[in-house]
Amino acid sequence: MTKSVHTQVRAPFRADHVGSFLRPERLKQARSQKENGEITAEQLRQIEDEEIVKLVEKQKEAGLQAVTDGELRRSWWHFDFLEGFDGVEGYTPEKGLQFTGVETRKRGLKVTDKVRFNGHYMIEHFKFLKSLAGDAVAKFAIPSPNMLYFRGEFEEGTYQNDEELVDDLAAAYQGVIQALYDEGCRYLQIDDTSWAIFFSEERRKSMIENGKDPEKIAALCARAVNESIANRPDDLLVTMHICRGNYKSTYMTSGSYEALSDIIFGGLDVDGLFLEFDDERSGSFEPLRKINRNDLYVVLGLITSKFGELEDPEEVKARIDEASKYVPLEQLCLSPQCGFASTEDGNKLTEEQQWQKVRHVVDIAEDVWK
């Protein structure tokens, strides 16, 4: 699908960001009060609104051209959204997700019926963000359809095979994407941690031992994404953020993009890729050689969101220069490698450090792309 020049010029921006921000203390307290029955849902929403107004202003002040609501209304980056489809319900499993050295809070998804789009409560979340954006671009992040495939517990009889599920997921996503577009969304980010399973030799081996063919599953995941965005209007820019996990400054897995480079860099119909490159867990830039499109942007996640220390700007510039050996500089951008709070728990840095990181991205990008 050919994209308009106007869209390509506007986003992704040279200095961009993944979207989630640390939850302000006031909001954390209000959420706790709501859970304890001390305030109403409407009172909580009012506090969310007020904190999002402040957050959008802070993003603009930091020099960002795309603004998000920081996912301040969400507890998790993916579960909350996926529960908005018919046929999907949240539940409390026996265990949380296993990250490096830590287990998450217990939260899961059950697929109890066919997955359908029948309106979605987060459309209102986007409308509120759009009303605040002004001259900035209102960017909205949603989880990939693949997250339901990998995270959902499917009740017996809901789906006969993976292909049938992907058909329904794609249709549901087409519905919600069109609804967001109708409300003015022109910059959509799809977040996907499922690809990281294929980067890890250990995880691939585990899939094979469980009777799954990694290559077939990866192709199925690419189909789920591509069909979900197949009908998007020409002026809707769609990027994908690929991550190896982000929970309280820990990660879930490691591995180079090489194992899946053909699909990620040559088989996804997105306009841009936000890629983790903040440490050795992501491997080298060499897999970027597989990019064969001059209209695919790569947003280099060279600034870590996991810790507060600022990276040496000259080292970051040197890494951008290194990446430009594989992808032309005009197709590169810069961002933190992930959000600052993929869940409401947040990463281990202060709000002041968070904004220093954002300004660091903006300052370096202004130097590199003068």
TrEMBL record:
Presence of keyword Metal-binding: no
A Pfam family annotated for this UniProt entry: Meth_synt_2
Alphabetically ordered keywords of this record: Methyltransferase, Transferase
Domain Cobalamin-independent methionine synthase MetE C-terminal/archaeal residues, every copy: 17-366
GO BP: methylation
Origin: domain of life: Bacteria
Presence of the UniProt keyword Nucleotide-binding in the record: no
GO molecular-function term, one example from the UniProt record: 5-methyltetrahydropteroyltriglutamate-homocysteine S-methyltransferase activity
EC number: 2.1.1.14
Protein name: 5-methyltetrahydropteroyltriglutamate--homocysteine S-methyltransferase
Native species: Virgibacillus xinjiangensis
